[in-house]
């Protein structure tokens, strides 16, 4: 089974604590894209479960969180009966790991060391260790933490990502800004292999063309409620600035009510001077759209322009966010797990065929097969 149409591919991350920033900024746009493009493209949405323990995790929760990811996409509207959309787990297509190993051997150590995400994550981890290790700590214990914390897997994570993409000859790969360097690497390694071994891989489009294709305004970026200068992120320590999809609606209501605002006392959209209020206007627009209302940010802004009592405005936002969560959680509870299992299995069957074909071609090129 060779894909006859060009391929759009993206990894949908496996973790349990997905927040509304992920939902509106990444999940919904992917679901919309899949629905819109599936007549002209094969859409490969895979769960990068092998990527999920490049940094330490609780392994007893991994299996559930993998399935939960598929359930969240389904609750967000991903149609499971669309044959052009493939939903699969990376770990169930062994060719990903096999190709990653081969590509590892053509990847420079320095090349990986320069990846900014690796540098950021490993430095952050080292800082964390510094703050956790109070002397005297045994040398052995310190070593265990350091060695299991910054793994070789974290280091060569981009190589596995390249394999994820190249196995299927994907041309378009929607990723966030933090992943564009990895996409550039995928282009580099595929061009390198093609020069050495002849035309082995389809090279994904350059980042600029990806942006053109997917549109530059990659969804709105929801900010942290406590600190609206930064993006909402699950690594926020207190959790007060972040609304998780699994939050109790009342708890989310409280978080909105205590969101940071400003002292100007006027509801208006001004990202620079009133980031908190502007963020709430965006959140309000998004939850209304999710409820099926046809409203734009501009309409929401003009509806509340000039309102002076922030408490009243926040209550409106908080009510609608709570309602959104209750609705979403009901949709999630209604997801048919059986349908997801059979979608995963049938996609995995098909994807093994496609991926193995590429893998065999590579194995032949490097001399492992005749
Ligand atoms: N690294 C991506 C992320 O952190 C997930 C991912 C893994 C991915 N492999 C991929 C995305 C291949 C696109 C294509 O979000």
Automatic annotation (TrEMBL):
**Listed GO CC annotations:** cytosol
InterPro entries for the chain? aa-tRNA-synth_Ic, Rossmann-like_a/b/a_fold, Trp-tRNA-ligase, Trp-tRNA_synthetase
Native source organism of the sequence: Candidatus Nanosynbacter lyticus
Protein name as it appears in the record: Tryptophan--tRNA ligase
Mark the transmembrane ranges.
none
Keywords associated with the record: Aminoacyl-tRNA synthetase, ATP-binding, Ligase, Nucleotide-binding, Protein biosynthesis
> Which one of the record's GO molecular function terms can you name?
ATP binding
* Keyword Hydrolase included in the entry's annotation: no
What is stated as this protein's family in its record?
Answer: Belongs to the class-I aminoacyl-tRNA synthetase family.
Report the EC number(s), separated by commas if there are several: 6.1.1.2
BP term (GO), one: tryptophanyl-tRNA aminoacylation
């Amino acid at each position: 089974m060779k894909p006859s149409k060009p391929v759009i591919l993206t990894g949908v991350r496996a973790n349990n604590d997905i927040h509304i920033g992920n939902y509106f900024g990444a999940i919904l746009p992917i679901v919309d894209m899949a629905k819109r493009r599936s007549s002209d493209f094969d859409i490969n949405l895979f769960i990068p479960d092998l990527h999920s323990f490049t940094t330490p995790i609780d392994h007893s929760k991994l299996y559930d969180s993998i399935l939960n990811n598929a359930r969240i996409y389904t609750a967000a509207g991903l149609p499971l009966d669309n044959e052009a959309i493939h939903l699969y787990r990376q770990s169930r297509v062994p060719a990903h790991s096999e190709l990653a190993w081969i590509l590892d051997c053509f990847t420079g150590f320095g090349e990986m060391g320069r990846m900014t995400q690796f540098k950021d994550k490993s430095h952050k981890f080292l800082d964390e260790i510094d703050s956790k290790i109070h002397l005297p700590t045994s040398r052995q214990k310190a070593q265990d933490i350091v060695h299991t914390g910054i793994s070789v897997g974290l280091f060569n994570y981009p190589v596995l990502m390249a394999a994820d993409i190249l196995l299927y000859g994907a041309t378009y790969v929607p990723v966030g800004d933090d992943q564009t360097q990895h996409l550039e690497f995928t282009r580099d390694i595929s061009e390198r292999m093609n020069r050495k071994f002849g035309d082995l891989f389809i090279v994904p489009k350059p980042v600029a063309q990806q942006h053109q294709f997917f549109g530059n305004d990659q969804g709105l970026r929801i900010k942290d409620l406590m600190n609206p200068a930064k993006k909402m992120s699950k690594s926020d320590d207190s959790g007060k600035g972040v609304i998780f999809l699994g939050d109790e609606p009342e708890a989310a209501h409280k978080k909105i009510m205590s969101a940071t605002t400003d002292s100007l006392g006027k509801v208006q959209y001004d990202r620079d001077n009133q980031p908190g209020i502007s963020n709430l206007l965006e959140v309000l627009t998004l939850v209304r759209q999710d409820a099926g209302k046809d409203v734009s940010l501009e309409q929401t802004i003009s509806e509340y322009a000039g309102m002076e009592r922030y408490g009243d405005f926040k209550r409106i936002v908080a009510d609608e966010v709570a309602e959104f969560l209750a609705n979403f959680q009901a949709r999630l509870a209604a997801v048919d797990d059986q349908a997801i299992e059979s979608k995963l299995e049938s996609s995995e069957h098909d994807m093994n065929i496609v991926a193995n074909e590429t893998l065999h071609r590579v194995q032949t090129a490097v001399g492992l097969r005749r």
